[in-house]
Amino acid sequence: MGAAGSKLEKALGDQFPEGERYFGVENFGNTCYCNSVLQALYFCVPFREQLIEYYSNNKNTADAEENLLTCLADLFLQISSQKRKTGVLAPKRFVQRLKKQNEIFRSYMHQDAHEFLNYLLNELVDILEKEARAAKSDQEISLKVANGPTTISSNGLTKEPVVTWVHKNFQGTLTNETRCLRCETVTARDETFLDLSLDIEQNSSITSCLKFFSSTETLNAEDKFFCDKCCSLQEAQKRMKIKRPPQILVIHLKRFKYIEQLGRYKKLSYRVVFPLELKLSNTVEDADAEYSLFAVVVHVGSGPNHGHYVSLVKSHNHWLFFDDENVEMIDESAVQTFFGSAQEYSSNTDHGYILFYERLDAGRSNTS
Predict the structure, then answer these.
(1) 148: pLDDT strictly greater than 70
(2) What is the per-residue pLDDT for 141?
(3) Among 100, 231, 254, 309, which residue carries the largest CB count within 10 Å?
(4) Which of 114, 252, 299, 308 is catalytic?
């Protein structure tokens, strides 16, 4: 990326952010799905800083073993500590670890960026939860030794859920409300999420997709709901609401749909407008949560089994385009060219697939 790097440095000139690094990432044959997501996560500044801090505090631990978390932290630290402002890095160690741990990513087939993001975040959570539980267990054992065996009893203790810094960034809560149409009793069940997958329609927007996500569905005929109060199956109304919005809202647009008649998946190139500023209304706890877009993973291609992934990133009020090894500056107005196609058959196959929004009242901003 020599020429491209110097071109980017010239384009930014005196405005090149102090201490920031813009590095392309080498593609190992079919790893664009991985590269595009890694760039989006790297420019999720709270996540990046907490990951590097975690690594700095833990890398010298005698029994520290290599895992996806340490490989990702090592890669982010490599990028952030480069002497050069721009260049290319090969995420060899991270990709090797990914393929070693999950056979899905071993083949040279086209992979899904959302599946990878989902797997990665859940894997990081699992590693951190295991470490937190192990540390707590060690602490309890040392307390027992210090205070005598009878001072602490584990009987009747329930396992408290561990809240990691990954949860603090990405986790939100949904509430699933079901209203019995006979007795009007409302049953609510909470569930957590790290990203929201939204159904899409032609010529729609993120706001309309979110409204559809929270729309009321009637359960009748074979889908009746068992009401505990009525002690029988009843017709009911069901809806899903966002109870607690996350600090980082990740939205996955369901662009790949299984078509029964074709017997295969088809890419939906629909035009879905995603705003630079998003207001989440109709949430349970917060009147209006406001978000700012800072990254977009884009799928390039006409079908689900082939194509390419690139990412758009906002950093210090500049928009950048990352395509594996290449990084270039783009105008903010260019973001709308990735909304999708208003007609089914279009030469434009570059469509926004995963959107990353940071909450504006989170107390810190990715773009400052």
Answers:
(1) no
(2) 66
(3) 309
(4) 308
CA distance 239 to 98: 37
| C-alpha–C-alpha distance, residues 304 and 202, integer Å | 18
Contacts of 44 (CB under 8 A, 6+ apart): 169, 248, 294, 295, 356, 358, 366
Q: How far apart are CA 207 and CA 267, in angstroms?
A: 21
Please tell me whether the overall predicted TM-score, pTM, comes out greater than 0.85 for this model.
yes
Active site (annotated) includes residue 308: yes
Residue in the block written with tokens 């990691």: 164
For residues 134 and 143, what is the distance between their CA atoms, to the nearest angstrom?
14
CB-facing half-sphere around the CA of 257: CA atoms within 13 A: 13
Identify whether 351 is a catalytic site residue.
no
Decide: residue 40, CB within 10 A, 0-12 exposed, 13-18 middle, 19+ buried: buried
Q: How far apart are the first and last CA of the chain?
A: 26
Q: Which two tokens stand for residue 83?
A: 């002497």
Q: What residue type is assigned to position 333 of the chain?
A: S
Q: From the candidates 32, 34, 71, 180, which is the catalytic residue? A: 32
Q: How far is CA 262 from CA 258, 259, 266, 303, in A?
A: 8, 5, 9, 13
- What is the C-alpha to C-alpha distance for residues 154 and 180, in angstroms, rounded to an integer? 40
pLDDT of 287: 67
Task: Return the pLDDT at 109.
Answer: 84
Distance CA 94, CA 31 (A): 11
